[in-house]
Amino acid sequence: xxxxxxxxxxxxxxxxxVLGQDELNVxxxxxxxxxxxxxxxxxxxxxxxxxxxxTRGLYDALPLSLRRGYxxxxxxxxxxxxxxxxxxxxxxxxHYVEAGNEEKAVKVSLLAGQELWRDAATKKP
Length: 125
Description:
mainly alpha; 2 domains
């Protein structure tokens, strides 16, 4: 179950971009949270939210308009970051759905489905 706006696993680079903050400041904040709680776990090359009920409660406490705004920002940053590399289309589709952007959600969801179909067709039984 996804109950973090940015996803269960995330990079400092993406989080800093979404927040419009310096990566080092975000890294320092995550380090503090990691050391003082068990909500955020340091996995070396990325951070991960502990899938516990407290993160669900924090997510649910966000007003819907703010949650949608965060999902829209994450989608925008994912889309911009993907221009030079591989995009996780299913993640992008999820964020557009949660942002309430039906037009982009449908478009990207169809692309995600096509990508899955293509991947399945190229695998040998």
